[in-house]
């Protein structure tokens, strides 16, 4: 299968998973459990989303394996029968099938043998990125990246709660194939041709003082005080806008933000490839630039983690060098 065909399958899979997530999130709101900090409903959605994406990809492109965030270990123990049952209902498949689909996501390129052909091309999947945002009823993303020869060559980024100009209802799926641009599609829809959407592009802002910067809601995921210093150095008066998940990449890719800062909170934290692959694909094809805090390209060839990088800086491009320099000064 060529890249276009793979991304077409990916769009179908991410759309199906987004619909599952929307339903679970609506149930949470109705049940009033959102604020209780109860992680189990989120777990249901994470597992169901991974089962749906992996199930569709197994049918459409059986040769490709998936590097997914979730695994079925927890579901296979007897004490979680109830959880497994709910996952199966939401995924719309028998329990055994859901487990099998989820475990298609357990591939680890770093431990596969040198001559294992599955290492050449695989998916990176975050079935729900921004689980905390999902719990709060705010932003989250279903993120699927395509990696070939250790490089991101395409991606699908579903953001069911992201408001989009000119659209009455929130929700968008951004799609990119390397070299062919980035497009936005509605979450609903049956035409999965990646190029049939509306072309998206980053902003052209380069004057530092007017940059619109975004960052994680969770202070454990990014050094918010350092980011506040960065925007001050750039001459921006507003603090960074906080937003959960890879919806931040989407905001920069669609030109409604200019930079996304993810500054390491502690030495040694290794970013996961599924937290960035889809976002990087979409943003780069929309004209943007992504590096780590030291200005290095993200290295997706190391397995499940971005072992050679620390933090992430994603921008529209024109402001990148200036933002990287300010981050360097703020981190000391
Ligand atoms: N210490 C640390 N540093 C950086 N990143 C971390 C850290 N711990 C977790 N994670 C990952 O953050 C992912 C969520 O991304 P965001 O911070 O953008 O969203 S949110 O504010 O948590 O909603 C989140 O992805 P999900 O688990 O899919 O939600 C984690 O993989
Ligand atoms: Mg994530
Ligand atoms: Mg996740
Ligand atoms: Mg997680």
TrEMBL record:
EC class: hydrolase
One Pfam family in the UniProt entry: Inositol_P
Name the Gene Ontology biological process terms: phosphatidylinositol phosphate biosynthetic process; sulfate assimilation
Cofactors that this protein relies on:
Mg(2+)
* Positions bound to Mg(2+): 69, 126, 128-129, 275
Q: Which Gene3D superfamilies match?
A: 3.40.190.80, Fructose-1,6-Bisphosphatase, subunit A, domain 1 (3.30.540.10)
Q: Which GO terms describe its molecular function?
A: 3'(2'),5'-bisphosphate nucleotidase activity; metal ion binding
Family the UniProt entry places it in? Belongs to the inositol monophosphatase superfamily.
Which NCBIfam families does the entry mention? bisphos_HAL2
Supply the name of the protein. 3'(2'),5'-bisphosphate nucleotidase
């Amino acid at each position: 299968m060529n890249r276009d065909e793979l991304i077409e399958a990916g769009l179908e899979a991410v759309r199906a998973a987004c619909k599952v997530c929307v339903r679970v999130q609506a149930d949470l709101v109705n049940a009033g459990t959102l604020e209780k900090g109860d992680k189990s409903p989120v777990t249901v959605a994470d597992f169901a989303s991974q089962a749906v994406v992996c199930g569709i990809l197994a049918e459409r492109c059986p040769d490709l394996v998936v590097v997914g965030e979730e695994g079925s270990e927890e579901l296979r123990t007897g004490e979680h029968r109830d959880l497994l049952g709910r996952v199966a209902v939401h995924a719309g498949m028998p329990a055994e099938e859901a487990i099998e689909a989820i475990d298609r996501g357990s591939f680890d390129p770093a431990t596969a043998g040198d001559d294992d052909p599955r290492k050449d091309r695989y998916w990176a999947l975050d079935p729900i990125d921004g689980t905390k945002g999902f719990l709060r009823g705010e932003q989250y993303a279903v993120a699927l990246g395509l990696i070939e020869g250790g490089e991101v060559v395409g991606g699908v980024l579903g953001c069911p709660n992201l408001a989009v100009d000119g659209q009455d209802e929130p929700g968008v799926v951004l799609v990119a194939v390397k070299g062919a641009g980035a497009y936005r599609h509605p979450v609903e829809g049956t035409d999965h041709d990646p190029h049939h959407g509306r072309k998206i592009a980053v902003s052209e802002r380069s004057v530092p003082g007017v940059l619109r910067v975004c960052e994680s809601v969770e202070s454990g995921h990014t050094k918010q005080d350092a980011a506040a210093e960065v925007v001050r150095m750039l001459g921006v008066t507003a603090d960074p806008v906080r937003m959960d998940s890879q919806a931040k990449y989407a905001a920069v890719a669609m030109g409604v933000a200019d930079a996304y800062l993810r500054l390491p909170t502690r030495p040694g934290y290794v970013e996961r490839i599924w937290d960035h692959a889809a976002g990087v694909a979409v943003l780069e094809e929309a004209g943007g630039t992504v590096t780590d805090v030291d200005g290095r390209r993200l290295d997706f060839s190391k397995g499940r983690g971005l072992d050679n990088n620390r933090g992430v800086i994603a921008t529209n491009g024109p402001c990148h060098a200036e933002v990287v320099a300010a981050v360097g000064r703020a981190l000391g």
